[in-house]
Design goal:
This protein is α/β, with parallel strands linked by helices. It has helices spanning 3-6, 10-49, 98-113, 135-140, 143-146, 157-168, 195-211, and strands at residues 61-68, 82-88, 121-127, 148-152, 176-180, 184-189. It folds into 2 domains: 15-54; 61-211, 3-Layer(aba) Sandwich (Glutaredoxin), CATH 3.40.30.10. It is built from 7 helices and 6 strands, in the order ααββαβααβαββα. The protein has a 6-stranded mixed beta sheet with strand order 1-6-5-2-3-4. Helix 3 (98-113) links the parallel strand 2 and strand 3. The longest helix is centred in the first third of the chain and has 40 residues, at 10-49. It is elongated. It starts with a helix and ends in an 8-residue tail after the last helix. Keywords: Membrane, Transmembrane, Transmembrane helix. This is Cytochrome oxidase Cu insertion factor, SCO1/SenC/PrrC family. The chain crosses the membrane at residues 30-50.
């Protein structure tokens, strides 16, 4: 034992040892708490601080706040159902026009992909030019076969102007628009023939149907 150790009273040496053990215990406890809290801290930082632009979980573009529809526009029950809506002129929606057919086909396939929940989704095509729908198109996208309801534009000029403004807000006029059961537009999707993007749209719709039943008129 060194001369310095001989000069330290035994009681003081015991206190020093206890303090050292206490400090080690506190450090260990702090490290344990940090380890437990790390996932929470990381998720907080990822979401609120370092969240990238592409970090969103939805593929479709959210409409915030949702844009309400007016009952005066159409004599059709939008309320109580999820609706995929597209607006296209019948005069241009011919067999040779792939842009129009891709939109109709995509909507039909999305509804089919909902499987048992497909009855909660209705498909609406707004015929923007009032011309007759091609017999081939009408047959392929018949209500009983494909679930489509083909509606004319509102007859009243003021209602028509209001609907067009609603439709084209945020540049979404050519998109596939998703209307919730309230009814209000709450999301829109691009028209695409990409299988990957179709899968992302399907996930968005599945998630909404799984967690949102408020306001629905279920059969």
């Amino acid at each position: 034992m060194s001369n310095e150790e001989l000069l330290i009273p035994a009681a003081q040496a015991d206190v020093s040892a206890i303090n050292a053990r206490t400090r080690r215990g506190r450090i260990q406890m702090l490290l344990l708490l940090l380890a437990c809290a790390a996932p929470v801290i990381a998720s907080y930082l990822a979401y609120y601080v370092f969240k990238p632009e592409g970090g969103k979980t939805n593929f479709g573009t959210l409409v915030q706040p949702a844009q309400e529809m007016s009952d005066a526009w159409f004599d059709f029950p939008f309320k109580g159902k999820w609706t995929l809506l597209v607006a296209r002129p019948a005069g241009e929606c011919q067999v040779e026009n792939s842009d129009c057919l891709e939109a109709l086909f995509l909507m039909r396939q999305l509804r089919v992909a909902m499987a048992r929940e497909s009855g909660r989704v209705q498909l609406v095509w707004i015929n923007t030019d009032g011309k007759s729908v091609s017999p081939q198109i009408a047959q392929a996208y018949d209500k009983n076969i494909a679930g489509f309801e083909i509606l004319p534009m509102p007859a009243d000029p003021q209602s028509k102007a209001a609907f067009e403004a609603w439709l084209n807000r945020e540049g979404a006029g050519q998109k596939i628009q998703l209307i919730d059961p309230s009814p209000a537009k709450m999301m829109y999707f691009p028209v695409t023939n990409s299988s990957k993007e179709f899968g992302s749209m399907k996930k968005d719709l599945e998630r909404l149907l799984r967690f949102n039943r408020k306001g629905e008129s279920l059969p």
